[in-house]
Amino acid sequence: MFDLTTLLRPNIARLVPYSSARDEFKGKSDIFLDANENGFGSPLERDFNRYPDPQQTAVKARLSELKGVAANRIFVGNGSDEAIDLLYRCFCEPNKDQALVCPPTYGMYEVSANINAVELIKVPLQSDFQLDLPAIWNAITPTTKLIFVCSPNNPTGNDLRAADLVALLQGFKGLVVVDEAYIDFSDAPSWTKRLADFPNLVVLQTLSKAWGLAGLRLGLAFASPEIITIFNKVKPPYNVNAISQEWALQALAQADRVGEWIATIRRERQALISALQGLSFVEKIYPSDANFILIQLENARHVYEYLLEQGIVVRDRSNVPLCAGCLRVTIGTPEENARLLEALKIFKI
Ligand SMILES: *Cc1c(COP(=O)(O)O)cnc(C)c1O
Q1: What is the pTM of this model?
Q2: Ligand 1, residues 63, 86, 106, 177: which to mutate, most atoms within 8 A of Cβ?
Q3: Which end of the chain is less congested by CB atoms within 10 angstroms, N or C?
Q4: Are 74 and 64 in contact (CB under 8 A)?
């Protein structure tokens, strides 16, 4: 029932991709006069005069080991936002097709839909922040191409129920995109383990959160080799720069260190939740499978501004559907979390 060729925009199906100098000659040689680079080098201590690997071969090989996913199922982009944009550009005909999201969720799915002139269908999560499947089935049309879900979800922090995602993957004939930006902080297994079962599954991850590389801009997409081939056709040829590739490779060799941070952040998450529960103006703390917590307060705006005066910035989510009165707080280092708690303990309404 799933047919990638009918999902693809006709102009993308016909597209002849750009062929770069580094696509056409990949071997070793003494003199490279094929890419109009500057043979003298760079006016820096280090040389960046050569174009980077357009396919990020070394980074993908390491990711493949680390994630247990074949390299031809991996796309590396300039942040997850590049993969989100590519999904729209490859599969949604502007002013004709739709995508579906379940608010409250990550804002880029909507911004990117608007940029690409793709109508967005919104089916709110239920009050327990799980998917409303009957409403989703009701809202889908024959031209709905993509469903974006986020698990653990931002800003609510919870994992989505696996059985609901299986139902979506089995029942929807477009692509189901599962954004796992926060998967490292969850007990749930990654959906990358199920890629072979579902040809319409696209999993997004990022090196911006647990891996501590937000400044390098490295987003990942995992999907069938056919979908990854399409992304590679449409992406800018050199979408990930040489520095990002090089430092990502060094970082990916330090999985143990990142694992320790993750364990600490998960412990701190629990400690912070316990401590916040003792505060009179805290109404509700939602359970979290991520590196942040959503807190409902008596006067969220007031607390937000008070914290700003104390030099602590959190995210005010009180205008987001289902998040009235809520602040979203990232779990920081033990020192940062202690400062946050001290500030809140002396807060007077
Ligand atoms: C932070 C975040 C991302 C990461 O985006 P990058 O462009 O990779 O930095 C993706 N999805 C969600 C839900 C996020 O919260």
Answers
A1: 0.97
A2: 106
A3: N
A4: yes
